[in-house]
Amino acid sequence: MRLTRALSLAFGLGVVAWPRPARAVPSVHDLVQVDEPPTPRLPTPLSLPELTHDATHVTLTSSVGRARVEDATRPSSNVGLHRAAVEVLVGPRRRYYLGAVVPFGGALPPDGSGGAKFLVGNVEAHARVVFPLPTLLAFGAQLGVVAPTALWDRNGAAGSAGRTAASLEPTDTWHFSPGVVALRPAFDMRLLRAPFVFQVRQGLDVVIDSSGSERAQTAGRLLAYAGVLVSRRVAFSIEASQLYLFSAQQPDASRAAFMVAPGVRLALGSVDVGAALVSSLFSPLVPSVEQLLALRLSLVFRLGR
């Protein structure tokens, strides 16, 4: 009995004293990398950026359609809106981005003030930052600056054509407003809950107009994207955008402009291809236009991957 107790005591002391493997202490590198975006590659939306892409994006977007005017005695107006954009990843991790967009477009003025016009709009540059979480939720912020690079007269046929072209994406109406400087802060949010993707951008535009009746005005904008990933390369989606003008001189009936665009995106290697049908649900940006309908095509080239 005594021998048994002695052996049990010795065994217990041995277990307690046995050296246990030391726990690995995480390095600073490990702690820094814990919030690296865990998202897979997603087909890029038509109107919003892919928040956490890891390559330089060169985007070409073209929208071509018809604007039906309220005056039945006037013909429908052909309208087009085109954009060339680039966004560059700054640094080795998907956090900071710099980009710019050059818009150009044209239309037959729906008010009958002249013939069709083709115009180059104001250039916009932006800086963007992303705050991804250790889940499939990501937040971001962007500051855009619109420079007054458009050289055409805002009054007359050119102004009417520019506003009609901007109606295809009302949240970017300042791209076709000569003589303005706009500061465009915005916040982004994306939720990926396979197979669904939701992304929202909400912004407030502060516009300084040296030639208009109001030297300063503000506008709110909202862009939303909802997509379904039917595979790793294909997404069906619907996008919507709204512009709301806070100007005191703006009639209440024309303060808001809405657009909706159901579409499809296809990821092919280093190129994303997209197509959507763009339409104004009601209250287009130009009061003389009753409804807009256009086809939007998009190519996104992923460089330097």
- Beta content comes to over 45%
How many DSSP-defined strands? 13
Note the total helix count.
Answer: 3
Radius of gyration: 27 Å
Structure description:
By secondary structure, the protein is mainly beta. The chain has a single domain (54-303), classed as monomeric porin ompg (Porin, Beta Barrel), CATH 2.40.160.40. 10% of the residues lie in helices and 50% in strands. The protein is built from three helices and 13 strands, in the order ααββββββαβββββββ. It has helices at residues 2-17, 28-33, 157-166, and strands at residues 56-69, 77-90, 96-107, 117-120, 124-132, 137-146, 180-193, 196-209, 216-229, 234-245, 256-268, 271-279, 289-303. The chain has a twelve-stranded antiparallel β-barrel with strand order 1-2-3-5-6-7-8-9-10-11-12-13. The longest helix is centred in the first third of the chain and has 16 residues, at 2-17. The N and C termini lie far apart (74 Å).
Give the SSE layout.
Layout: H1 2-17, H2 28-33, E1 56-69, E2 77-90, E3 96-107, E4 117-120, E5 124-132, E6 137-146, H3 157-166, E7 180-193, E8 196-209, E9 216-229, E10 234-245, E11 256-268, E12 271-279, E13 289-303
Antiparallel strand pairs: 1-2, 1-13, 2-3, 3-4, 3-5, 5-6, 6-7, 7-8, 8-9, 9-10, 10-11, 11-12, 12-13
